Amino acid sequence: MSAKQESPEAPAALPHVDRWTLIGLVLLLSPLLTMAHELLGHAVTCVASGHRPSELGAYYVECPGTGPVARRLVAVAGTTVDIVVAALAYLAWRTVRTPLLRLALWITFTVKAMVAAGYWLFSGVLGLGDWSPVGDGGLAPLPYPWLWRFALTAAGLAAYIGTIRLANRSIDEMLGGGATARATRVRMAMTIYWIGGAGALLVSLFNPHGLMITLISAVASTFGGTAGLFNVAYRPTPAIPPRPVAIGRHPALLIAGAAVMAAFAAVLGPTVYLR
Predict the structure, then answer these.
(1) Based on the number of CB atoms within 10 Å of its own CB, is 241 exposed (0-12), middle (13-18) or buried (19 or more)?
(2) How far is CA 200 from the centre of its chain?
(3) What is the DSSP string of the chain?
């Protein structure tokens, strides 16, 4: 074998994202982004409306004693925070150039935007959840509930499709095209989907309110809300050059992610009672 062939620059190794670094990022970001929805959204709005949360769970907040207006504000606050976080993360992603930070910001705005759009779809199609205008939904009761559900479904579908397109364009900008970029893209999207979903499922099993919280909150917002990652992973690879992006192994990030996820499960999984 010639010296040129033995050179470490000969194989087409880029773009590359280390699998364990990616897992660490997902373990770190998943609890933080969930707490942004529940605590910065629902809980802070509950307090701002002059009330006090009675229960803080990993995937729900109880705010008793609210009137119709305050109850609706508390209900939609979580998704509103998701949208704000997604927008800020995307704006930051456009300016930074450090590969690891760009990856973290891409995960943040992709997941939060998908989850926000998914909430509208979920409430519109099934008539359940924070934005539902019927039954025990967060906006209920509203006149002409079927009209509201149609509007929520249409808005959610449009937002979800737009989010997938933005996620695809931005990940192509980071990774480029070619076989290696495609393999890296599949690893990124599927790691986010399965690790994030499995973590949410396990944490939600500690909740004291039973399987319904697991199904309509944790599972719906992760396995359901981020299902668009399958499109990101398995769509056709663009015919553009690969990008020279390399994100190596960061053991400290994996340890930090595991610690944050464990603390999230131990504290908010079983619920914090404030009364």
Answers:
(1) exposed
(2) 11
(3) --HHHHSTTSS---SEE-HHHHHHHHHHHHHHHHHIIIIIIIIHHHHHTT---SEE-SS-EE-TT--HHHHHHHHHHHHHHHHHHHHHHHHHHHH---HHHHHHHHHHHHHHHHHHHHHHHHHHHHS-STT--STT-TT-S-SSHHHHHHHHHHHHHHHHHHHHHHHHHHHHHHHBSSHHHHHHHHHHHHHHHHHHHHHHHHHHTT-TT-HHHIIIIIIIIIIITTTTHHHHHHSPPPSSPBP--EE---HHHHHHHHHHHHHHHHHTSS-EE--
CB 125, CB 153: distance < 8 Å: yes
pTM (predicted TM-score): 0.92
Residue 3: the pLDDT is: 38
Query: What is the mean predicted confidence (pLDDT) over 164-169?
Result: 98
Q: Cα-atom radius of gyration of the chain, to the nearest Å?
A: 20
Q: What are phi and psi of 160, to 5 degrees?
A: -70, -45
**Beta-bridge partner residues of 16:** 246
- Cis link prior to 244 (omega < 30° from 0)? no
